[in-house]
């Protein structure tokens, strides 16, 4: 577990965590929001609080937070459990966070490999019926210089998720930095093996993860849907032209796929070069 973690818990015995958690009745689906905010402080200035509040999620995962402490506006959100995991390797880089209405049984900020655990890219929360992981996967770099490190990361992740899946079903979400198939980005041929996120290696690694008994929820539900992206470069008016990539995912254990109620991309929510994604699942 990373030692450099900014965490907040409500400490009351009749806690706010319990009070807020009661809003979700047993018959209600669990609502999970994931969003690469491209800098949490900057996103707060672009209606982050309003956007998160409107979605009313039970658990929120954030990627690329780029800060060491929560902005006060985020602290004020009605989530009694808050974790922020900054990078220990490079200040102001990467970083992930979790906000939750319910207190998990346990929370870990890495998967046991110091080389990766210090990067601020992993939050694993264990609840009664499932494991949930929010992650910000390594970008392979403009010249693909990080591809070997990224491949090593993927091998560790696949092993860890497979291990967890033997205990309880897994929900894996975040910016996975890969467009799995040609349908998942606008200009596939121009980017293949030239751009991070669309190399044969990255795509194969993601495919191997799915072969371990996991499902890409969005593509399973919408197998033929085109132009359904989650990331758009700030350059060339890409978002307005919908020249994008689908690199943000919900991946779940195959055995809970039938529990999925809804998965969607919140394309109308701005504030970052990514849009949030949301999963509703009956667990």
TrEMBL record:
<feature type="site" description="Interaction with DNA substrate">
    <location>
        <position position="274"/>
    </location>
</feature>
<feature type="domain" description="Endonuclease/exonuclease/phosphatase">
    <location>
        <begin position="33"/>
        <end position="274"/>
    </location>
</feature>
<feature type="binding site">
    <location>
        <position position="36"/>
    </location>
    <ligand>
        <name>Mg(2+)</name>
    </ligand>
</feature>
<feature type="active site" description="Proton donor/acceptor">
    <location>
        <position position="175"/>
    </location>
</feature>
<dbReference type="GO" id="GO:0008081">
    <property type="term" value="F:phosphoric diester hydrolase activity"/>
</dbReference>
<keyword id="KW-0227">DNA damage</keyword>
<feature type="active site">
    <location>
        <position position="136"/>
    </location>
</feature>
<dbReference type="GO" id="GO:0005634">
    <property type="term" value="C:nucleus"/>
</dbReference>
<feature type="site" description="Transition state stabilizer">
    <location>
        <position position="177"/>
    </location>
</feature>
<feature type="binding site">
    <location>
        <position position="64"/>
    </location>
    <ligand>
        <name>Mg(2+)</name>
    </ligand>
</feature>
<feature type="site" description="Important for catalytic activity">
    <location>
        <position position="248"/>
    </location>
</feature>
<dbReference type="GO" id="GO:0046872">
    <property type="term" value="F:metal ion binding"/>
</dbReference>
<dbReference type="InterPro" id="IPR020848">
    <property type="entry name" value="AP_endonuclease_F1_CS"/>
</dbReference>
<dbReference type="GO" id="GO:0006284">
    <property type="term" value="P:base-excision repair"/>
</dbReference>
<dbReference type="InterPro" id="IPR020847">
    <property type="entry name" value="AP_endonuclease_F1_BS"/>
</dbReference>
<keyword id="KW-0234">DNA repair</keyword>
<protein>
    <recommendedName>
        <fullName>exodeoxyribonuclease III</fullName>
        <ecNumber>3.1.11.2</ecNumber>
    </recommendedName>
</protein>
<dbReference type="GO" id="GO:0003677">
    <property type="term" value="F:DNA binding"/>
</dbReference>
<comment type="similarity">
    <text>Belongs to the DNA repair enzymes AP/ExoA family.</text>
</comment>
<feature type="binding site">
    <location>
        <position position="274"/>
    </location>
    <ligand>
        <name>Mg(2+)</name>
    </ligand>
</feature>
<feature type="binding site">
    <location>
        <position position="273"/>
    </location>
    <ligand>
        <name>Mg(2+)</name>
    </ligand>
</feature>
<feature type="binding site">
    <location>
        <position position="175"/>
    </location>
    <ligand>
        <name>Mg(2+)</name>
    </ligand>
</feature>
<dbReference type="GO" id="GO:0008311">
    <property type="term" value="F:double-stranded DNA 3'-5' DNA exonuclease activity"/>
</dbReference>
<keyword id="KW-0464">Manganese</keyword>
<dbReference type="InterPro" id="IPR036691">
    <property type="entry name" value="Endo/exonu/phosph_ase_sf"/>
</dbReference>
<dbReference type="InterPro" id="IPR005135">
    <property type="entry name" value="Endo/exonuclease/phosphatase"/>
</dbReference>
<keyword id="KW-0460">Magnesium</keyword>
<feature type="binding site">
    <location>
        <position position="177"/>
    </location>
    <ligand>
        <name>Mg(2+)</name>
    </ligand>
</feature>
<dbReference type="InterPro" id="IPR004808">
    <property type="entry name" value="AP_endonuc_1"/>
</dbReference>
<feature type="active site" description="Proton acceptor">
    <location>
        <position position="274"/>
    </location>
</feature>
<keyword id="KW-0378">Hydrolase</keyword>
<dbReference type="GO" id="GO:0003906">
    <property type="term" value="F:DNA-(apurinic or apyrimidinic site) endonuclease activity"/>
</dbReference>
<keyword id="KW-0479">Metal-binding</keyword>
<dbReference type="Pfam" id="PF03372">
    <property type="entry name" value="Exo_endo_phos"/>
</dbReference>
């Amino acid at each position: 577990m990373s030692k450099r973690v900014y965490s907040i818990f409500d400490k009351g015995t009749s806690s706010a965590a319990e009070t807020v958690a009661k809003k979700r009745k047993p018959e209600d689906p669990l609502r999970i929001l994931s969003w690469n905010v491209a800098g949490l402080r900057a996103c707060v200035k672009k209606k982050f609080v309003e956007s998160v509040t409107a979605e009313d999620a039970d658990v929120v995962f954030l990627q690329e937070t780029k800060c060491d402490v929560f902005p006060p506006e985020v602290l004020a959100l009605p989530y009694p459990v808050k974790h922020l995991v900054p990078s220990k390797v490079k200040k102001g880089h990467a970083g992930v966070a979790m906000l939750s209405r319910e207190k998990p049984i346990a929370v870990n900020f890495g998967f046991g490999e110091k080389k990766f655990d210090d990067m601020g890219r992993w939050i694993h929360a264990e609840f009664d019926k499932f494991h949930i992981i929010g992650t910000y996967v390594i970008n392979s770099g403009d010249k693909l210089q990080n591809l070997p490190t990224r491949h090593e990361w993927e091998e560790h992740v696949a092993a860890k998720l497979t291990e967890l899946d033997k205990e309880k079903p897994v929900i894996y979400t975040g910016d996975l930095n890969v467009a799995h198939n040609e349908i998942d980005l606008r200009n596939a041929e121009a980017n293949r093996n030239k751009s991070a996120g669309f190399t044969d290696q990255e795509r194969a690694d993601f495919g191997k993860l799915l072969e371990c008994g996991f499902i890409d929820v969005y593509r399973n539900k919408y197998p033929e849907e085109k132009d359904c992206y989650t990331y758009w470069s700030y350059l060339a008016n890409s978002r307005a032209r919908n020249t994008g990539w689908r690199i943000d995912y919900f991946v779940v254990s195959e055995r809970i796929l039938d529990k999925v109620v809804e998965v969607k991309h919140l394309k109308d929510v701005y504030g970052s070069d990514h849009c949030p994604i949301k999963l509703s699942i009956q667990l």
